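re: that chain from earlier
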Amino acid sequence: MIYSMTGFGKAQKEIQDLQIKVEVKSLNSKFTDLFCRLPKSLSAREIEVRNYLTQQLERGKIELSLTMQKATETSSPSLLPEKQIEELFSELKRVAKQVGVESVNETALYLHALSMPNTIQAEQSQETEEEVEALWQSIFEIIQEATQECKSFRLREGNVVEEKFKEYIASIKNGLDAVKEQDLIRMPNIRERMKKSLLDLGLNEDFDQNRFEQEVVYYIEKFDISEEKVRLATHLEYFLEVLKEGNGKKLNFMAQEIGREINTIGSKANDSQIQRIVVNMKDELEKIKEQTANVL
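^ sequence. v structure.
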């Protein structure tokens, strides 16, 4: 099972009178590159959010956007505790009459009510600790929901990429089988070409056969690709094993090893037919390399 680094998830919910929306995006990157766009009122929570995203999404260029707005514009509550101010104002007038103040300046009393300690903050201060924490927990649940949707997106993309990997590896295996078939007739062809070259140079059939066979053996060893064929087959099988682990870095390393063997076969074969097969194998390998860059 593999995960792609490309993903997207979103979640939204109405809490109290707030409409909260969270979007999480991720793209491929060699390292963890996090960017969080949070309201200023939640800036103190950014480290907690970053730690959670790193734990869940591990690697990639990750962006989280969180927006909060009033759910309804028309029903927005007053910023002042109207009832409390009204009670304070009435109480000031009652006390003024009680102490015998004959002429009461109601405007002055109203301003005094506003300026009394804790008039505006008294009610809010009781809510700050508990309600703000409860609100944050609700917001964090939305962040978790969007993150999990992003992970599910990554898994779906990873399943598609996994099938593509299997197709590319199968194509390279077919190329390797074709190389093995061509290799059976390649060496006799090399021997005949060498013999023909000697005859073209004007030598008779009675040239030193022992020396000729020694030269043939030398070139056979030089052009031999038996080890490369075995190693390439082993690398292809191991690539499929790593694919089950879902380790993108290992897959990238194995792709490099596969490429090394393919290149060696192409350079040592000295055969036009094998060269054409190698070109096709390289084309499939390039597709693998492009995809491994996007695997977690």
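The mean pLDDT is 83.
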